[in-house]
Amino acid sequence: MAAPEKLKSIRITSPQKIEELLRKVAISGSPLIIKPNATPGVSVRGRAVPDSENSNGKCLKIANISARGFEHLSKNYEAGFQIEFVLASIKIVFVTTLVCFQENACIVNFPTLLESIERRKEARIPALGNSRAYMSLTSWTPDACDSATIPFFESSRDLVSLIMVGDISAGGLSLVSRFPAVCRALSSTNKVESALFHLPMQRPLKITAAIRWTKKTSELTAAKGSADREIISYRFGVQFLDVSDEVTKSLKQFLASAALADAI
Prior knowledge:
The chain is built from five helices and 16 strands. The two termini are 36 Å apart. Strand 2 (31-36) and strand 3 form a beta hairpin. It has helices spanning 15-28, 67-75, 157-160, 181-187, 245-259, and strands spanning 9-12, 31-36, 44-49, 59-63, 81-87, 90-96, 98-102, 105-109, 114-118, 125-126, 134-137, 163-168, 172-177, 191-198, 205-221, 229-241. The chain is an alpha+beta fold. The chain has a nine-stranded antiparallel sheet.
């Protein structure tokens, strides 16, 4: 197994550089995450915007905060906030305090320190909840008589042919299945010449991919009032090949949305 990738961290303490960077972020309208220090497990989405009323003040205005997020911030602001946003392959993190609240917005002080963290080249985003995604193979369709596939009615064959995605990056994804029938289709070749990639609220995307690794995992779950139950899963690492502009654009939109999916 490859060693974990080490991420580089750089601290920016120059007031001039901090002010210059945060003003550029406001002008560009960058999306960001606000985490109250009192409740670090809860993230609130927002967007940096120019603040015409405080053009000379050293503060950052964060707007586009949802009603639920605004309520949470207003109850947990006293210990300050941690702000996170992404610039290309760099994640910027800083801790700050509140100046004031405005309608669906808040203004925070410029910090004395920014931490610049180099992100993984291709960060993987879990495909969960409303960010579920699937892949289907044009060369494989489930057989209702095959005991190794999920039981289904003929009318739902198209749904059963969808293989669930575990996580996604700009360069590939992992597939997860509880039934071994799909293993025969994926393990019989190292290259998938034709597949369809299904992202939420988008039409299926045609892709070519390579199968880089396969793994069988076993997990014991405790069942109330009975013996532990073993759950077996089959996982596959998939690398995109010859990615089209359409796929690249759709992936960027999906990854940006999925990265903020847990924020309120």
